Amino acid sequence: MPRLPLALSIGEPAGIGAEIIAKAWLLRREKELPPFYVLGDPTFVESRLGRLGLDVPIVSVVPEVVLGAFAEALPVFDLGQPIEDRPGELSGATAAATIAAIETAVRHVRDGRASGIVTAPIQKSNLYAAGFKFPGHTEFLGELARQLWPHAPHEPVMMLAGPELATVPVTVHIALKDVPEMLTGEMIVETGRIVDREMKAKFGLARPRLAVAGINPHAGEGGAMGREDMDIVAPAVARLRAEGIDARGPLPSDTLFHAAARKTYDVVLAMYHDQALIPVKTIAFDETVNVTLGLPFVRTSPDHGTALDIASEGKADPSSLTAALRMAGRMAAVRGAA
Ligand SMILES: NC(=O)c1ccc[n+]([C@@H]2O[C@H](COP(=O)([O-])OP(=O)(O)OC[C@H]3O[C@@H](n4cnc5c(N)ncnc54)[C@H](O)[C@@H]3O)[C@@H](O)[C@H]2O)c1
Ligand SMILES: N[C@H](C(=O)O)[C@H](O)COP(=O)(O)O
User: Fold this and answer.
1) Does 62 share its domain with 198?
2) Has residue 63 been placed in a domain?
3) Residues 6+ apart with CB under 8 A from 107
4) In a domain, 338, yes or no
5) C-alpha 223 – ligand 2 centre gap (Å)
6) Is the pTM of this model over 0.95?
7) Which GO terms describe its cellular component (predicted)?
8) Which residues line ligand 1 (CB under 6 A)?
9) What is the pLDDT of residues 188-240, one digit of tens each?
10) Ligand 2 lined by 137 (C-beta under 6 Å)
11) What is the DSSP string of 7-40?
């Protein structure tokens, strides 16, 4: 039995967050989920579950009573910010509560009230419209870490980890046309160092094998299809190797993700968002977890988004969320033991 529960932020209220959270709670015994509580508005959660016909009792809690309450009801920590139940309809009025849920969850970890955080998906465009300054959770959590743990490293790195494949995008939420200009050897080296360190510390790998993807077709074909692989990626890989990190590349990315290739490495460093996320979500959309490396606390998330298109239909699959909860529970246990 863990000593502390996981804090789970409600995510975009118009999306499937409340539904998958309730479905995950129903699966708590079957999936052996660690105890968790939701940060949100209990009235909203109750309304959405009623609308979807999900028979899940909910209970208003503070984190300290979650371990005792979790078996009988879905525990909800009331943020004190009412949320209207409008499935599929985005509203700027909910942005503050969505952001407060993430921030409060992190504060609960910092204050020793929760063991780690799991985040339900946010609708990024809705938060941007309300003035949110960060591309996504990953960067926002990096900023919260900087404020709340001033003496710990806070170098957030996004990793998508499934049963057969883990990938890390070196550049993340930027337009494809900007990638060649933004990508630097320093970014690849920094990301490689963090991945190497964290795969050892948090995932127990003695010597993580990093496969570094090329950015151009055929990794540039000797410069004929772009010089970035020769000029940026190859020297970065050489630097990582000189530091004793088991990195290989640049490797042509079209042949990097088939089953036999996947057995030759532990994680792929990809040069841009879709190069990393298309293979991992294609192979295991329902089991892949988004985990943030490089933070002084545990954070995982399902790999999917808000799914507004099915928010009132009751058919959202909670599998990626249950995988995220299980991974966060394991990581928190390792951290607690350390
Ligand atoms: N961690 C996060 O906060 C996170 C992650 C990814 C995307 N997003 C955001 O989500 C929003 C929508 O993104 P999108 O449309 O590209 O991707 P999406 O994952 O929301 O939806 C893609 C498709 O998959 C389906 N789907 C997604 N999750 C499902 C589930 N659990 N069960 C059944 N079907 C599911 C959807 O109905 C849709 O057809 C965007 O604003 C994006 O930024 C947030
Ligand atoms: N790039 C991620 C994805 O598409 O799954 C996603 O947007 C999540 O980003 P944050 O965890 O930083 O919100």
Assistant:
1) no
2) yes
3) 148
4) no
5) 32
6) yes
7) cytoplasm
8) 16, 20, 121-125, 137, 290, 301, 304-307, 309-310, 316-317
9) 999 999 999 999 998 889 999 999 999 999 999 999 999 999 999 999 999 99
10) yes
11) EEE---TTTTHHHHHHHHHHTTTTTTPPPEEEEE
Instruction: Please report whether residue 303 resides in a domain.
Output: yes
Based on the fold, state whether residues 43 and 190 are members of the same structural domain: no
Q: For the chain, report the end-to-end CA distance as a whole number of angstroms.
A: 17
Are residues 273 and 255 part of one domain? Answer: yes
Q: Is 138 in the pocket of ligand 2 (CB under 6 A)?
A: yes
In short, whether 303's Cβ falls inside 6 Å of ligand 2 is yes
Domain that holds residue 37: 6-154+293-333
Residue 308 CA to ligand 1 centre (angstroms): 8
How many structural domains are present in the chain? Answer: 2
- CA 136 to centroid of ligand 2, rounded, Å: 6
Nearest protein CA to atom 37 of ligand 1, as residue: 307
Q: Which of 203, 125, 206, 101 is nearest to 159 (CA)?
A: 203
Residues 191 and 99 occupy one common structural domain: no
